[in-house]
Model the fold of this input.
Amino acid sequence: MACPKIAVYPGSFDPVTNGHIDLISRGVKVFDELYVAVACNQAKNNLFSVCERMEMIQEIFADNPRVKVSTFDGLLINYVQEVNAHAIIRGLRAVSDFEYEFQMALMNRNLAPTVETFFMMSKDTYMYVSSRIVKELASLGGTVSDLVHPLVEKKIKEKYRSK
Done:
């Protein structure tokens, strides 16, 4: 029996966007298991807690047991090894993403030569979508229904109503 192909898709996912959902959906077609790893980055001013972000992703992918949602703190490569993954998935929206992601991929390869990084291009409909833009638009009263899952839209509205 062959070893399962396991990948990790890391990010802050604050909030998870349709671009993230698309990459997860496509990634799980390539790998047997896909760990969506929500980063604990205290330096960022997050709208949602790590638990809230994880719950949203879990609910969106509740019907797909091959999508695993967890969290990590510290070096990504340590987490990748902890879950026995052999691949990291990174999304690219524009050329500007590439330089940073390329540097990170090379550093990860230096730290763990057996772990490969797979770059996945965003669909053209999501090239401009980022969590930051979603939050900014929602905070100013704009509609985000084309940018996020309905569950996420509801949670965003609740957050900004309570602020």
